[in-house]
Prior knowledge:
Layout: H1 2-26, H2 32-56, H3 66-90, H4 94-105, H5 109-121, H6 127-150, H7 160-169, H8 171-184, H9 191-215, H10 218-223, H11 225-249, H12 254-265, H13 271-278, H14 283-310
Amino acid sequence: MEIFWFSFNAIAPLILTVALGYFLMRFGVINRPFIDQANNFCFKVAFPISLFSSIVSIDLQQEINWQLYGFVIIAILTIALMLMLIIPRFVKGNSQRGALIQGIYRGNFLLMGYPLARNLFGEAGIGPTAMLLPVVIGLYNVLAVFILEYYDQQGAKVNKGKVVIGVITNPLILGAAAGAVFSLLRLELPLFLSRATDDIGKIANPMALILLGGQFNWKRAAGNIRLLATAVAVRMAIIPVIVIMAAILLGFRGPELGAIFILFCAPTAVSSYVMAKNMNSDAELAGQIILVTTALSGLSLFGAAFILRAFSLI
């Protein structure tokens, strides 16, 4: 029940924030130009600073568990590659392909990781989750930029140079890279800058959720029901079962298996909507995937944690 209430208390505020955005749009407090401008702000300022603040606070020089790193990196890359091979066979539009792939492989580990690990294992058991955060954040964002550039709906033919440049110059990649450099070199910002970056970074998720709610359209969601159902089933059921079973067979237990469980059972990352909106992808589909996976994640996290604990695996 502790996990159930944790999941509810973590997810309910997200849903309420999305609902706020929906009603603000319906009552005319915000409008489409505001949503477009605010999305641009989130993409170029708020989320890069949020990533910087999150990574700079992590000790990247801690002892590395190469087995755990290797498993997670291979799992994420394999999932992304399989999705890029399979989804284009069934989805024709490039904008939907990019949004769907990103919505399936990319979990909200940044938001769910620390709190859920602390709830499951206490302060002594959050090490594996903390260790994975910078690697997962970096890999998720590099893959997202690559995939969205690759499936750019405005390009009829893939320009490899454009894809590479897009990855290198993406604001989220630059924010994550800057955080990694500061952490590795143990550099510290002056107190006034540190507080400013923390405050700006805290804007990112709530603002993105309000914008998501503002652009949400029930009729268009109904039109995407097949793609949405596919994304939710793969993200919330198929991937967690396959990855967690593989991890158990390879001998992961306790906090290490817990970190893997949190990573692959988390709902789709909120930042995927902002990236889709700013990189010529289907932002509405991306937002719908976030909303539905977030709403269902309370049950999936609770169910998976209950089963793993029942068998004394975590």
